[in-house]
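[09:14] KT: can someone run the structure on this one? pasting the chain below
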Amino acid sequence: MRQVLIILFLCFYSLSPASAQTRSWGGTVHDARMGEALPAVSVCLLRADSSIVQFAQTDAEGRWRLQAADGTGAFLSFSFIGFAKQVIPLAECTESMDVRLRETTIQIREVTVRGNRIWQRGDTLTYRVAGFSQAQDRTIEDVLKKIPGIEVGGSGQIKFQGKPINKLYVEGMDLLGGKYALATRNMPHKMVKNVQVLQSHQPVAALRGKSFSDQAALNLVLEDNARHRLIGIVDLGVGIDWDGEAVWENRLMGMMFGRRMQNLTMYKNNNTGSDLASGINPLAANTGIINLSNGERNLFGASPTTVRGLGRSRYLDNNAHLLAVNHLYKPMPTRDLRLQLTALHDSQDASSGEETTYYYPSQTIIVSEAEDYHAQLNRLDAELGYERNDSNVFIKNNLSGALSLQKTRLNLLTNGDILQQRIRPIKKAT
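[09:31] RB: done, structure tokens below
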């Protein structure tokens, strides 16, 4: 019986798996220069192929401990941000080792930062307004003057690559027709997100692919907070000039830019010499559309003598008032109903004088010249238009009317002799 038990014990022992022997390692990690304990140091037990067997981190006092089966590792590595990594063969490691890490500088790869201010997709060139605007800019016209390839003239006309644009759209809609200076000179640039240049733009959809255009159009893409809501702007400015006279410049403006309807209504007045009439002059280039009504033109005109290097506000006294109403309704994507109404009153006064002395051997001649100018312009323009612009049909019908009364008086005095010029048309209606 005793022999049987011994045999059974030997058989059981031979079938049981061999128990694996484990080893442990531990210690502390310090800063080699300062001697301070380093917390959160990564401690890894690595195989010969650098794969990780076990992982640990040092505590607040720099202590760590690892345990693994004997023979499963080959190295211990210690790494920490800002310090050189240290790898120690496992044969040199003990259960109470002190590792000293040295500070090092890490050189990162070169990074190039590029501002995404301009990009192109097909024939559309897009400029991000925030990439070109500056703190002193007020209107979108101020930003357009800084965009490469775009020029803005003194009258407000916009050119791209030296050629006048044929359309200016707001959110893809033609609210203002050729009188786009009402938008560019009055819309705050912070309302506009992007300026899109539609190169080789053919405004007549039926002619696209059939008639080439070398002119561009501009489209103002608005910020999300400027869409589908009423926006009001009030600017009031009153002061006193050097002669103690009151001067003012005011603006009341309301705007709405929706998906099917847009409106821009504005009233401005000033007596600072600022030209309000330039804001309602047609600026768009000829689009090839036949216009059957050309209206009348002034055959005569008079204007004060300008002084080189001085703006209007330096020599001209005026009292100007402008009301502009622009409304666009889009019942269908290819159909527009547009109403434009402008009323302008501008009274202007200017005077100047000079004296010239001519020295001759026998005499001296003094020529005294003076000029006195007064003009008054009253102008009312109204236009109601319908446009259908799709790939098969183009229809544009405008019912427009204009009424103006312009009075001008220019007195030229030479050594007291007066030459008077008066212009007062009896009528001008179209």
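[09:33] KT: thanks! Residues 226-285+312-423 form one domain.
[09:34] RB: yep, looked fine to me
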